[in-house]
Each structure stands twice: as C-alpha cells, then as structure tokens.
Write a structure and sequence with these properties.
Blueprint (H helix, E strand, L loop, with lengths): L8 E12 L2 E12 L3 E5 L6 H8 L7 E6 L2 E2 L5 H4 L2 E4 L11 H10 L5 H14 L15 H13 L5 E5 L7 H16 L3 E5 L3 H7 L2 E6 L2 E6 L1 H5 L4 E8 L5 H8 L4 E6 L3 E7 L4 H11 L7 E4 L3 H9 L6
Parallel strand pairs: 3-8, 3-9, 6-7, 7-8
Antiparallel strand pairs: 1-2, 1-4, 4-5, 9-10, 11-13, 11-14, 12-13
Length: 318
C-alpha cells in the first residue's frame, strides 16, 4: 500500500514487559505496524509471540509498557477499538451446532448487534471465502480447508481495520492455502492492516511487507525479506552432482574464502557460502582445475529460513 495510510500507525507497542513469576516473557518489547502493512511476526516456540498478541488484544495483563491501536490506548474495556479488530486463531473456533451462515452471523453479532446492519456483512464474508454453496452445512461436514475458510469468515465478517492471523493455513491442502493467502492479500488491498504469524516461511515471504523476528521476548531483527537476508552471512547454497570428487579437491573447496561448509556423499556436493558475487564460479573453477567431472547443478539464494536459523539458532518449528 502506498497511500497516506502507510504514514500512520495502526499498532504501536512500547516497552512491553510481561513476567510469569521469575520468567521474563516480554523484555521491554517494542513493535510498530503501519496502516496498510501485512506485518509478519516470527519466532520459535517460546519466543513470546502468543504472549505479545494476547497483551495487544487486552486478553492478558502486563507489568509495564503501552499498547496503542490507531493512536488510542488499548485496554480490556476499549470496546471502540475492539470493534475495529479481527482475530483468526490458529485453532478453529466455531460452533458445531450452527450452520456456516449461523456461525458467521453469530460472531459478527458480537460487534454488530442489529441483525439488519450485519445481514450484508455476513453475505459479503460468505462470498469472500467462497462458502456460498456450503452456507447451510454444519462445520462437521466441511473439509479441513473449508473449515479454515469458515474460521476466517467468522473473524472478518464485521469488517475490521486490523486483523490478526495466527497460522491460518496449518494442515490445509495447497489449493486451500493459496485461496487463504489470496484472500488475505485482497483484504489488505481493500484497506485492512494485517498481522500474520506462520511456520511456513514461503508464505511470510510471499505476502508480508515487513517482518519481525523475535526471541526471548525481544526483537531480533526487523525489515523486508530482502533486508533481513542482507543482515546475515548466509549466502547461496550450491549443489553439484559429481561422482569423482577427491578428498584434496573437497579440502580446496572448503578453503575457498566464502565457503562456510562443504559436504559430499559420493554423489552430491553441497556447498554453503557466505554472500558473494562469484561463489558458483569459484566452486566450478576448483572442480575443473582438479579434473572432476560434474553434471546437474543448482544455486539457491539464501532463504528466510536461513536467516531465521542464523539469527535465532533454532528452526521455526522447534
């Protein structure tokens, strides 16, 4: 989004501290999300993501700090702000006794009391997630992907300005995943600001304009996907098929200035390099100088997962 809304803060968290006994869950944590952004919040389990979101939503008290949404201080009774917020939780939260349409209408009614006012909202939410043919179905009759879509519709039917998506694509098929991601991008294009958490790095890289990595209740890094990749040593991953790689040649590859590691299993040579302009040429030149024959080769640039692993020392799924 490139309009004036991007100059304004949708969400500002300042100096947030949360303790559970002797454990410091949030350590003077700061966060700012501009209006119009799709903001990715990443961190390994136990990093403080869930605590942060619960504090922002005033579902959890905190020791010190402030949370402001659209310039106003958030609190348990800030109902005017809560009306502008939507939450799509990781665990599907719907009523099995109600139909698709009844579920969406119920959750919309928590924010929009008058049925006449929410009639069009419910219809728009049903159409938005593609559940028109399933409006009379109960959740138990829906596939996993359709159930996730219902979960989203329940969270957005009241047309919020700020939406939290907590791993909305867990355990869904690729077609449903694409539909969900495209839906989030459409919501953003229509004006919604999005805070997005996921264990799927490719999703974050696809839809998020800004990404924060947090751990131990603190911010580790912040920027676009490309900016984050520029913060770390991790460079390209080079893979080469070769059947006649000798120990001397492998040692020379490991000694290349930009090489971080080189592993050979008798068929594939995998070299991980720091960022550099001539990594592939240097590896191939070493192979050719030794007379080694090689076949198929690939060179992959650093991924967001490489960045995450280097900055936190943990896989995101830990």
């Amino acid at each position: 989004m490139n309009d004036a809304r991007t100059l304004e803060s949708a969400l500002t968290v300042t100096g947030l501290v949360k303790r559970y006994g002797d454990m410091l869950a949030l350590d003077h944590f700061d966060l700012e999300v501009k209006r119009g952004e799709v903001f990715g919040l990443l961190g390994p389990n136990g990093s403080g993501k869930t605590t942060t979101i619960n504090c922002i939503l005033a579902l959890l008290s905190f020791d010190s700090g402030t949370v402001r949404i659209f310039g106003k201080e958030m609190g348990p009774t800030a109902y005017d702000l809560k009306r502008r917020i939507g939450v799509v939780p990781q665990n599907v939260a719907v009523f099995n006794e109600l139909s698709v349409q009844e579920n969406i209408d119920y959750f919309c009614s928590l924010y929009v009391p008058r049925k006449a006012d929410r009639k069009d909202m419910v219809e728009q939410a049903i159409d938005f997630v593609g559940l028109a043919d399933f409006r009379r179905f109960r959740p138990g009759k829906l596939s996993g992907g359709l159930l996730r879509r219902l979960n989203i519709a329940c969270g957005i039917a009241h047309q919020p300005d700020l939406i939290f998506f907590d791993e909305p694509t867990v355990a869904v098929d690729p077609q449903s995943r694409n539909a969900i991601l495209e839906g989030i991008e459409r919501l953003n294009a229509q004006g919604a600001t999005v805070v997005y958490t996921s264990h799927y790095m490719e999703e974050v890289e696809q839809i998020c304009t800004q990404i924060m990595i947090m751990d131990h209740g603190r911010r580790i890094a912040l920027g676009s996907a490309d900016e984050l990749k520029g913060m770390v040593e991790a460079g390209e991953r080079i893979s080469v098929e070769t059947l006649d790689l000798g120990e001397d040649t492998l040692a020379r590859i490991r000694a290349l200035p930009q090489a971080q590691s080189a592993d050979y299993d008798g068929l594939n040579l995998v070299v991980r390099c720091r960022q550099g302009e001539h990594n592939l040429q240097d590896v191939l030149a070493t192979l050719e100088a030794s007379g080694s024959n090689y076949g198929h080769l690939t060179s992959r640039p650093p991924s967001l997962n490489d960045v995450f692993l280097e900055l936190t020392g943990k896989e995101l799924r830990d």
